[in-house]
Every structure is written in structure tokens, then in C-alpha cells.
């Protein structure tokens, strides 16, 4: 019934990041560009998923406010919550050494302020930011480096490139000169 719905399939490498890369590459293949992107995916924990989705799409008031926030030229990404990109964080600390390669690729000094990221990687962002940085060939190369059936659940104590890539989204927004904010930010 819709002419503009596209379905992608990934082999579960990198979990939610791998699915995003697969979909983003399909978008590039089709020559489609969007002013704004909302990145959502499943979460094992229902409460966590609800909290992350609520901040983006919880009700009409939230959606209208997020649309208003995205019209601000200083805003680049919205999430339910944000955390500083800081290698001193206890959560996902092991993944930070994987981040260096991504930062080197984009010529971003890791000793500078790296801005904020959206925990859970469910966010609303301006398409121009990813258009500025992401190219199909490098995305597919990075995707091929993700281990199959990678699970970022902290219970299994496995952290790797997908967790580092989660931080990269906010770093690119910051490097582009925009802010990563929460849905309830007052402007």
C-alpha cells in the first residue's frame, strides 16, 4: 500500500549498528537523501526500549517539540538521554580503543572534546550530518569487521567495534558543529 517503504536484511553483524549500516547503504544505492533520520531498533529490555523510544516518539507533544528542536540550526541529534563521550566512563570502557581507528579515518583529534552520545543508539538526527561523513565503501568495510551475532549486552562482558561505532554518531555530530541534546531541552 506504500510506494516508499524499503526493507533491508543484514546478517546480524554488529546488531543494531549493522542493521543501520545495511539500511544506510541501501539508501545511498538508491540515491535517496533525507533531511532527518530517526534510528530505532529493538532492545531486549522492554523498560529501556520504552524509555529510549518515548523521548523521540512518545506522544504528539514530544514529536512536535522534537520537530521544533530539529529546526534549530545548532541542533544535530536528539535522544532520550545523552552521555559525554569520555573514555573515563565505566560503561563500555573496553570499546574506546576501537574508536581510535574511526577518529583517525575522519581526522578527529581524540584529545579534543568529543561531545556527547545517545545511549542505546536510538536517536533523531539531521541527514546532512551523515551525508557529510558516510560513504558506502567505508561503511561496508567497517561492517565486514563486525563479528557475527555480536551481542553488546554487558552481562556477557563483550565489547567491540559496534560499541565504538555507537559513540561515533555523536562525535560526528559534534565535529560537524552541531549539538547532541535530549528531547526535553528548552531552546
- Portion of residues in helices? 40-55%
Portion of residues in beta strands equals 5-15%
The oligomerization state is single chain
Largest sheet: 4 strands, mixed
Overall mean pLDDT = 88
Total strands: the figure is 6
Shape: globular
Gap between N and C termini: 38 Å
Low-confidence parts lasting 5 or more residues at pLDDT below 50?
A: none
Q: Strands across the major sheet, in which order?
A: 1-5-2-6
What is the chain-wise order of helices and strands? HEHHEEHEEHHHE
SS-based class: alpha+beta
Count of helical stretches:
7
Instruction: Supply Rg.
Output: 16 Å
Q: SSE layout and pairings?
A:
Blueprint: H1 15-29, E1 36-39, H2 46-57, H3 60-71, E2 75-79, E3 83-84, H4 96-105, E4 116-117, E5 123-126, H5 127-133, H6 136-144, H7 161-175, E6 179-182
Parallel strand pairs: 2-6
Antiparallel strand pairs: 1-5, 2-5, 3-4
Helix pairs in contact: 1-6, 2-3, 4-7
What labels describe this entry?
187 residues, four-stranded mixed sheet, 7 helices, alpha+beta, two-stranded antiparallel sheet
Kindly describe this structure.
With 187 residues, the chain is α+β, with helices and mostly antiparallel strands. Helices cover 43% and strands 11% of the residues. The chain has helices spanning 15-29, 46-57, 60-71, 96-105, 127-133, 136-144, 161-175; strands spanning 36-39, 75-79, 83-84, 116-117, 123-126, 179-182. The model has no long low-confidence stretch (mean pLDDT 88).
In short:
With 187 residues, the chain is an alpha+beta fold.
Amino acid at each position: 500500500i506504500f510506494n516508499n517503504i524499503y526493507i533491508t536484511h543484514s546478517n546480524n553483524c554488529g546488531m543494531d549498528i549493522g542493521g543501520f549500516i545495511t539500511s544506510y547503504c541501501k539508501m545511498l544505492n538508491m540515491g535517496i537523501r533525507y533531511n532527518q533520520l530517526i534510528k530505532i531498533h529493538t532492545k531486549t529490555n522492554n523498560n529501556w526500549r520504552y524509555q529510549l523510544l518515548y523521548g523521540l516518539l512518545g506522544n504528539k507533544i514530544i514529536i512536535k517539540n522534537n520537530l521544533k528542536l530539529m529546526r534549530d540550526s545548532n541542533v544535530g541529534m536528539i535522544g532520550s538521554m545523552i552521555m559525554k563521550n569520555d573514555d573515563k566512563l565505566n560503561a563500555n570502557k573496553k570499546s574506546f580503543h576501537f574508536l581510535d581507528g574511526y577518529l583517525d579515518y575522519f581526522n578527529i583529534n581524540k584529545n579534543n572534546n568529543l561531545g556527547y552520545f545517545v545511549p542505546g543508539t536510538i536517536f533523531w538526527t539531521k541527514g546532512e550530518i551523515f551525508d557529510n561523513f558516510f560513504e558506502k565503501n567505508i561503511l561496508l568495510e567497517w561492517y565486514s569487521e563486525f563479528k557475527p551475532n555480536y551481542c553488546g549486552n554487558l552481562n556477557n562482558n563483550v565489547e567491540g567495534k559496534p560499541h565504538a561505532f555507537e559513540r561515533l554518531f555523536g562525535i560526528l555530530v559534534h565535529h560537524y558543529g552541531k549539538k547532541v541534546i535530549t528531547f526535553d531541552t528548552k531552546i
